[in-house]
TrEMBL record:
<feature type="domain" description="PTS EIIB type-3">
    <location>
        <begin position="1"/>
        <end position="105"/>
    </location>
</feature>
<protein>
    <submittedName>
        <fullName>PTS sugar transporter subunit IIB</fullName>
        <ecNumber>2.7.1.-</ecNumber>
    </submittedName>
</protein>
<dbReference type="InterPro" id="IPR013012">
    <property type="entry name" value="PTS_EIIB_3"/>
</dbReference>
<keyword id="KW-0808">Transferase</keyword>
<keyword id="KW-0813">Transport</keyword>
<keyword id="KW-0598">Phosphotransferase system</keyword>
<dbReference type="InterPro" id="IPR051819">
    <property type="entry name" value="PTS_sugar-specific_EIIB"/>
</dbReference>
<dbReference type="Pfam" id="PF02302">
    <property type="entry name" value="PTS_IIB"/>
</dbReference>
<keyword id="KW-0762">Sugar transport</keyword>
<dbReference type="InterPro" id="IPR036095">
    <property type="entry name" value="PTS_EIIB-like_sf"/>
</dbReference>
<dbReference type="GO" id="GO:0016740">
    <property type="term" value="F:transferase activity"/>
</dbReference>
<keyword id="KW-0418">Kinase</keyword>
<feature type="modified residue" description="Phosphocysteine; by EIIA">
    <location>
        <position position="7"/>
    </location>
</feature>
<dbReference type="InterPro" id="IPR003501">
    <property type="entry name" value="PTS_EIIB_2/3"/>
</dbReference>
<keyword id="KW-0597">Phosphoprotein</keyword>
Length: 114
């Protein structure tokens, strides 16, 4: 699963991406996580299964969800205290909950995954 973490300038998203990638690895999950910015989002969305949106981008959530829906990508607005998740386990759980609890991308109609 490919997880995109988006923030304004890319600094805080880098920390969140690194932490969730580490937590996934510790749980034996083959997840990749990478950081992006609001400006790079149109390009980065094509490479993501899940988008984690920084809490300070709540104002852009509807637009992000609309753009992600076209690609079949799941969007999660991160809570304001997410930067306190130092080991990434809470963030990882948010991802797993968003994709149905198992952590696997649900099969799309027609038998393919996103």
């Amino acid at each position: 699963m490919r997880i995109l973490v988006v923030c304004g300038a890319g600094a805080s998203s880098t920390f969140v991406a690194q932490r969730v990638r580490h937590a996934a690895h510790e749980n034996g999950l083959a997840y990749s996580a990478f950081a992006g910015t609001e400006q790079s989002l149109p390009i980065d969305l094509d490479a993501a299964d899940v988008v984690l949106v920084g809490p300070h981008l709540a104002h852009a959530l509807e637009r992000i969800e609309r753009d992600a829906a076209i690609r079949g990508t799941t969007v999660v607005l991160l809570p304001s205290d997410i930067f306190n998740d130092l080991d990434g386990t809470r963030t990882l759980q948010l991802v797993r909950d968003a994709v149905g609890g198992s952590g696997e991308i649900p099969e799309a109609p027609g038998g393919t995954t996103s």
